[in-house]
Amino acid sequence: MIPPPDDIDRLMAVMQTAFPPEYGEAWTRRQVEDALLLGHTFYGLLASHGEEPQGDEPAAAFFLSRHGFEEEELLLLAVDPAHRRKGLASRLLDRLAAEARARGAQRLLLEMRRGNPAEMLYRAHGFAPIGERLKYYRTPGGERLDAITFCRDFN
Question: What is the model's pLDDT at position 136?
Fold first, then answer.
């Protein structure tokens, strides 16, 4: 899925505000563009009012996912800190689930660093831990952090 350049601009603007730099989780524009060149990578944007941004309206939240046979992986989900606690992440997760099911997914997967405050959100949307990778992530400062894999089955 090759999005228009202004959608990538919107996505990157949220990316820069949403991810704390000490964890090194934000992707570069090149990483996003390269991922979206693949035919099985998808994204969604929301403006602060909870709908798709129109015209030159900025985004307040986004997701990036990758579809594989009968499953979809949430690669990134981000909400601009100025627009958190407004239900945008929940709307994105609901949208992702609907779109993934329409593409034939039987489950959603995601991986996150241990201690990520988004864990409560994911659990509230039916995700459950199914595995862990010890010392999987490396911060820009060299610290190693565990990853937890979560799954939400649609059955």
Answer: 87
Q: What is the pLDDT of the chain when averaged over all its residues? A: 94
- What would the pLDDT profile of 45-58 be if each residue is shown by its tens digit? 999 999 999 999 99
Rounded to an integer, what distance in angstroms lies between the CA atom of residue 129 and that of residue 133?
12
d(CA 15, CA 70): 28
Tell me, what CATH number does 145's domain have? 3.40.630.30
The pLDDT of residue 134: 93
Among 89, 94, 35, 22, smallest CA distance to 67 is for 35
Q: Residue 80 in contact with residue 60, Cβ under 8 Å?
A: yes
Can you give the pTM of this predicted structure? 0.92
Structural domain that includes position 25? 5-153
Between 61 and 113, the more confident residue is: 61
Residue ranges of the alpha helices (H) in the chain?
Answer: 5-18, 29-37, 88-102, 119-124
φ and ψ at residue 100, rounded to 5 degrees: -65, -45
Instruction: Name the domain count of the chain.
Output: 1
